[in-house]
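User: I'm putting together a teaching handout on how sequence relates to shape, and I'd like one worked example. Could you take Purinergic receptor P2Y13 from Podarcis muralis, show the sequence you're using, and then write out its predicted structure as tokens right after it?

Assistant: Happy to. First the sequence, then the structure tokens directly below it.
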Amino acid sequence: SVATIQRKKQLSLFQTMNGSLSISNGTSSLAGQCHRDTRIAHVVFPVLYGILFLAGFLLNSLALLAFFQIRTTSSFHVYLKNILLSDFVMTLMLPLKILTDSELGLWQLKAFVCRFSAVIFYETMYISIVLLGLISLDRFLKIVRPFGKFWLHNVTSAKILSGSVWFFFFALSLPNMILSNREATRLSVRKCASLKNQLGLKWHEAVNYICQLIFWTVLILMLLFYIIIAKKIYSSYVKTQTRECKIKQRAKSKVFIIVAVFFICFGPFHFTRVPYTLSQIGKNIDCSMQNQLYIAKESTLWLATANICMDPLIYIFLCRQFVEKAFCVKSRKSRYTTQENQTIALDTGIST
């Protein structure tokens, strides 16, 4: 009957409000809902993100100044500069996230974050993931086939490939902005999904699956690359024990910093994201488990964001020109370093 339908609508509205509202201390909620201590989200994480923003802005500004002085002479330089751009854009999104998470900004700002800056934040994260995968492929070919010529090593090809990555994720993210077209209110902005229309929700779900697939594909390929690289380095080390060989192997082993940064930053977030998503759509999930997964998801997201501070390690370990420009150490390079440069320039994964 009409009365029954109206009653269901009212109940649905009440449940929506019930899931969105919380008392300011974050320890209470309306009856029937899982209690969540939001003080962690509103106090602890904004402080942690503030630290990341200050460190990330300083490090990436320094990196920008250094890379402006470096000519793009290799595919490796192209990928590094694109990662730097991606990290810098993500860094600029953090102040908005800090203001909205801490509830210091106006609710209209939260609507802007939901529709635009949060989308850009995740877009740049996955751009960095794919670019780290391309760097791994580039270093893999350099070490396993040092004298081989591949189109991927061409600067123009690397620029086209990097541009394609940016275009792909922009095209993937743009509908998330356009389809978040429902009216924003003080209540609805508490949950970004409330701003999306029906098609927007479906698109958002599809994008989540695509991004998960991209991460796991890149991770598996990187593991294969570095297993082969490790075998190559070990076999070369066993065959000869000359000082020159040790220099080469030490230089080659530095490429493992890439997979270390990738796994530390992005691995935990994606490992946690699957059970967290299932907890959101599942029924009869234990309340304490929901809270634990929420804290795990937020903590690992912070760790993924810390990538903006970790990527400079890749520049330092693998790009000698960056170290020279950023820290002005060229004049202090010793004769030993000069000899090492000459030895490893052609057959290692280190950029000179």
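A couple of points you could highlight for students: Residues 198-239 form the longest helix (42 residues). The chain is about 75% helix and 0% strand.
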